[in-house]
């Protein structure tokens, strides 16, 4: 079951990367290159933004807005340099929508550029880009019923796109 969930997530990430309209990914500014000359996924030239830095920015903005992190499924090891998943515990916040808006505002102040915003019938999805990474911030439902608040970031570079496609092919259901 867990594998099927990650296969679905990887499929969504591939679609997200392919359809986000972002230019480049981590290769936009020149990807980090390993000693053997290959691109290192999840790292930008100069080391300014990688999965650890993105995690720190999302966690800092979300906890600063009143969210506590809810443990979720681990990202497959091969995708960890390319993907960050941070889910808020909706039961431990007073006003989840206010905290969501504050988190997005803090990320925007930190250099993330808002690319799109969808707000309809209890669901809000905001797309933010920075240095070849895209964060899909999502607030769905309402407290007391069904509530999911998540921040999923992906590196849009070709090395990570290849890893997402490989993971999707590996986990494809017959």
Write out key terms for the chains shown.
174 residues; two-stranded antiparallel sheet; 4 helices; 34% helix; globular
What do these coordinates show?
By secondary structure, the protein is of the alpha+beta class. The protein has 4 helices and 7 strands, in the order H-E-E-H-E-H-E-E-E-E-H. It has helices at 2-19, 51-64, 96-109, 158-170; strands spanning 31-33, 39-44, 83-88, 113-120, 123-130, 133-141, 147-155. A 5-stranded antiparallel beta sheet has the order 3-7-6-5-4, with helices on one face. The protein has a two-stranded antiparallel sheet with strand order 1-2. Strand 4 (113-120) and strand 5 form a beta hairpin. The radius of gyration is 16 Å and the shape is globular.
Q: Counting H and I runs of at least 4 residues, what is the number of helices?
A: 4
What is the overall shape?
globular
The radius of gyration over CA amounts to: 16 Å
What level of helicity do the residues show? 25-40%
Helix and strand succession?
A: HEEHEHEEEEH
Instruction: Give the tally of β-strands.
Output: 7
What proportion strand? 25-35%
Low-confidence stretches: 1-40, 43-47
| Class based on secondary structure composition and strand pairing | alpha+beta
Most strands sheet: 5 strands, antiparallel
Query: Strands of the biggest beta sheet: in what spatial order?
Result: 3-7-6-5-4
Distance between the termini: 15 Å
Question: Kindly state the mean pLDDT as a whole number?
Answer: 78
């Amino acid at each position: 079951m867990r594998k099927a969930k990650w296969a679905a997530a990887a499929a969504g990430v591939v679609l997200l990367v392919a359809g986000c309209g972002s230019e480049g990914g981590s290769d936009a500014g020149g990807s980090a290159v390993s000693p053997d000359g290959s691109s290192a996924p999840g790292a930008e030239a100069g080391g300014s933004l990688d999965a650890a830095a993105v995690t720190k920015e999302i966690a800092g903005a979300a906890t600063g807005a009143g969210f506590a992190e809810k443990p979720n499924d681990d990202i497959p090891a091969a995708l960890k340099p390319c993907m960050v998943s941070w889910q808020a515990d909706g039961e431990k916040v007073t006003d989840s929508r206010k905290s969501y808006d504050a988190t997005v505002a803090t990320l925007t102040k930190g250099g993330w550029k808002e690319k799109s915003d969808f707000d309809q019938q209890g669901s809000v999805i905001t797309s933010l880009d920075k240095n070849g990474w895209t964060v899909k911030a999502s607030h769905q439902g309402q407290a007391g019923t069904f509530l999911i608040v998540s921040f999923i970031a992906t590196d849009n570079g070709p090395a990570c796109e290849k890893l997402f496609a490989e993971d999707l092919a590996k986990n494809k259901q017959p």
